[in-house]
Specification:
The complex is a heterodimer. By secondary structure, chain A is an alpha/beta fold. In chain A, the strands form 2 sheets. Chain A has a 5-stranded parallel beta sheet, sandwiched between helices. Chain A has a two-stranded parallel ribbon with strand order 1-4. Chain B contains 12 helices and no strands. The chains are: A alpha/beta, B mainly alpha. The interface between A and B is large, with 65 and 58 residues.
Chain lengths: ~160, ~325
């Protein structure tokens, strides 16, 4: 069940206030537990956060980007993708510009570890780039920073070749 | 113990239609959806497999499970209950009652395993061992002392370290058997416990961090130092406990890696950076695979030979498809 479902009655009073455009090539979601935000801060690269609350303006990508999202369990992997992320991906531009997914999670969830990131990667036909646990270790930070650099370099080379 | 466990000072009727912290609802729902009972797991299918273990392996397994039983009992009857008076919201109190009950289910489930696989005499001997093992008693005593102490945030630290760190010297063994296709139904049951403990550790750690926000810089530093001191104290005891149990079967070194790996996760649940470097957290892949069965696509793009990958074009997806 989405975290905002019961709280929805408080939020529905405010209509969405339009859109906020971003040129960052890393877009992430982090709940109020802030685990994923802490990881992104450690990366030290420009990144935009998908709004947590419904009354905040919708985030819209304007260039190719990688999506970094956590998985919060969900029973048997169902409803594992949070409504805020579904709403973000429901925007056509955000789907069109998505190039890869990075998942945060906890191996304690067994086969559903990072299931939300896996599902989005399959659904949008983009690679699952990396998985890490909770707020990530320093090795995870290095791997993702290096990995993203290489990934975007490779992407621009591919474009030139075509 | 003669002292009274503190009760919540004032109780008001809980209104689930007025939520102060969305995490309370989210975690409550997750715990309810994850609810299970040991009777649902076909443990009797492990009887044949149990017979293939050596006497040493059987003894080790029973001791490990009585150790886990003790920790779950503490967490069910004292630990989670001791957190209730400190709760910030009424819904947080309700979540702790759920956690307390589920810990009692965990404790009982080990008895289901025992009654399926072992004789009454063996069971009684294993329980007697649990009351006499120095390191096991010490870890119980350290944790209990904080539950009876008067610092609400230290209680949460102790509780998170129990949920996210102390169980794992025990959880290692059923994962090890599972990786060798032994006691696989028992491993299924343990995986359910492991999943629950992840939610418990995450939630109690989150509430710790919420509490920390209201504290002075000096007190925050004190609590951080305290966390690492307690972790070290528990860690040293865990290492001895591990050698005591696992030396006869030659698994101690890999168990210790599993301890490091989980100590890092316990720290992260409390909002602190992981402490053990990757060089000492490289648990054997067989154990990780047993932890996450069917997750066969465990290689990812950055770690694999990603350079030759051609980026796929995003498929246009109708909005209603996003109802996963």
């Amino acid at each position: 069940m989405p975290p905002s479902a019961l709280a929805g009655h408080r939020q529905s009073a405010t209509a969405p206030e339009g859109e906020r455009f971003t040129e960052d090539d890393l877009i992430y979601f982090s709940s109020v537990s802030e685990n994923t935000r802490r990881f992104v801060e450690k990366l030290n690269i420009p990144a935009s956060r998908i709004p947590v609350h419904a009354h905040e303006p919708q985030l819209v990508a304007t260039r190719p980007y990688v999506l970094l999202i956590p998985t919060y369990g969900g029973e048997h992997g169902k409803r594992s993708i949070l409504p805020q992320i579904i709403k973000f991906l429901a925007h056509e531009e955000n789907r069109r510009l998505l190039r890869g997914v990075i998942g945060a999670g906890n191996t304690n969830f067994g086969e559903y570890y990072c299931i939300a990131a896996k599902k989005i990667a399959v659904k949008c036909n983009v690679p699952l780039l990396y998985k890490f646990e909770l707020m990530g270790t320093s090795e995870d930070v290095l791997n993702v920073r290096k990995g993203l650099e290489l990934f975007w370099t490779q992407a621009s080379l591919n474009r030139k070749q075509q | 113990m003669t002292e009274k466990l503190k009760l919540a000072d004032k109780v008001e009727a809980i209104n689930w239609n007025r939520i102060q912290d969305d995490k309370d609802v989210e975690v409550w729902n997750r715990l309810v959806n994850n609810f299970w009972l040991p009777e649902k797991v076909p443990l009797s299918n492990d009887i044949q497999s149990w017979a293939t273990l050596t006497e040493d392996e059987k003894l080790l397994t029973m001791r490990v499970f009585t150790g886990l039983t003790l920790l779950d009992t503490i967490q069910g009857t004292v630990g989670a209950v001791s957190l209730i008076p400190d709760a910030i919201t009424p819904h947080e109190e309700a979540v702790y009652t759920n956690i307390a009950f589920m810990e009692s289910v965990h404790a009982k489930s080990y008895s289901s395993i025992f009654s399926t696989l072992c004789s009454t005499k063996e069971i009684d001997e294993a329980f007697r061992w649990s009351t006499e093992n120095v390191n096991l008693q010490k870890k119980a005593q350290i944790i209990e002392s904080y539950y009876h102490g008067d610092d609400p945030l230290k209680r949460k630290i102790a509780s998170t370290l129990l949920e996210s760190f102390l169980f794992y010297s025990g959880f290692y063994l059923p994962m090890h058997w599972s990786s060798r296709a032994k006691l696989t139904n028992t491993a299924d049951l343990i995986r359910l416990i492991i999943r629950d403990e992840a939610v418990h550790g995450y939630y109690i750690g989150y509430k710790f961090q919420k509490g920390l926000e209201k504290e002075s810089e000096q007190r925050r530093q004190e609590l951080k130092d305290y966390t690492f001191e307690l972790l070290f104290e528990l860690y040293e005891n865990e290492v001895q406990y591990t050698h005591d149990l696992y030396d006869p079967v030659g698994l101690s070194e890999d168990v210790k890696k599993f301890l490091h790996y989980n100590a890092n996760k316990a720290l992260m649940n409390l909002g602190y950076e992981a402490m053990f470097p990757a060089s000492v957290t490289d648990v054997s892949p067989a154990i990780l695979a047993a932890l996450s069965p069917n997750a066969d696509e465990n290689h990812d793009f950055f770690s694999g030979s990603g350079s030759s990958y051609v980026i796929g074009k995003a498929v246009n997806t109708e909005d209603e498809d996003w109802d996963f």
